[in-house]
Design brief:
Largest sheet: 7 strands, mixed
Radius of gyration: 22 Å
Number of helices: 8
Distance between the termini: 44 Å
Order of helices and strands: EHEHHEEHEHEEEHEHEEH
Helix content: 25-40%
Strand order of the largest sheet: 7-8-6-5-9-10-11
Shape: globular
CATH class of the largest domain: Alpha Beta
CATH superfamily of the largest domain: NAD(P)-binding Rossmann-like Domain
CATH architecture of the largest domain: 3-Layer(aba) Sandwich
Number of strands: 11
Length: 236
């Protein structure tokens, strides 16, 4: 049956599944921009290097959205994924920390869309507090977090603070009533009750790549040749 949605408990869906749904949404947006009206799971897999069986399985958690022999209507499936992911409402984010990483995240286009907005940054540096990164986006003092939230609800806090204050800031965020946190601080944190925290450790990701880099003597390759020339990088 076409577009028959089922209701599942969100806690029953894994993070891996929701991440794939987000990827599918981006693929559908690309197809829609190209004027494609219908697509099959096989075509999705071929064009975007996906697993067609996994694609069908992930969608099946939420209902039936395609027509046998025809495939999926791109605009309709995109609309359903937006609703399933909760992106059919305005989500406001606050970035804790206005250093290099925090300000870079504030300028990231993916955090500034029609339904996802960075609404403020918070810091303790007096040279930064009060500044505007752009019209409507100001850096506030951390002590102003609670008063700010009263007038500007925040759904997600992003941690981009120094390691030594990360736990303290996380607890401030939780005390302010923010229940979803995206953490960029490379440290293990004790997560307050009722808070869902997702960490992105860029150094861990780089180290994973380093592990797979060829070492001298492996496969006849070396990272640096014996004449001291520039490093030679090879795909794995």
């Amino acid at each position: 049956m076409l577009n028959k949605e089922s209701h599942v408990k969100r806690d029953e869906i894994s993070n891996l599944t929701t991440r794939r749904l987000s990827i599918y949404l981006r693929c559908l947006q690309t197809l829609e921009a190209a004027g494609v009206e219908t697509v099959s799971s096989h075509e999705m897999a071929e064009q975007f290097h996906l697993n067609s069986a996994q694609f069908r399985k992930d969608l099946a958690y939420f209902g039936e959205f395609g027509v046998r022999g025809v495939g999926y209507r791109v605009p309709d499936l995109k609309h359903h994924l937006i609703r399933i992911l909760g992106l059919d409402r305005r989500i406001r984010m606050a970035i804790m920390g206005a250093g290099n990483l925090g300000t870079a995240l504030a300028g990231y286009g993916g955090f500034n869309t029609d339904n996802l907005k960075v609404t403020a940054l918070f810091d303790t540096d007096p040279d930064k507090v009060g500044r505007f990164l752009r019209p409507g986006l100001q850096i506030h003092h951390v002590s102003a977090l609670n008063p700010f939230i009263l007038g500007h609800p925040v759904h997600i806090a992003v941690l981009a603070v120094p390691t030594m204050v990360a736990q303290e800031v996380l607890e401030q965020v939780a005390a302010a009533g923010i229940r979803s946190v995206l953490n960029f601080v490379p440290v293990r944190l004790k997560v307050p009750a009722g808070v869902r925290l997702q960490s992105v450790d860029l150094k861990v990701q780089v180290e994973s790549l380093v592990f797979h880099l060829p070492r001298e003597g492996e496969d006849g390759q070396a990272l640096v040749d014996h004449k001291g020339k520039d490093p030679i990088l090879h795909t794995v």
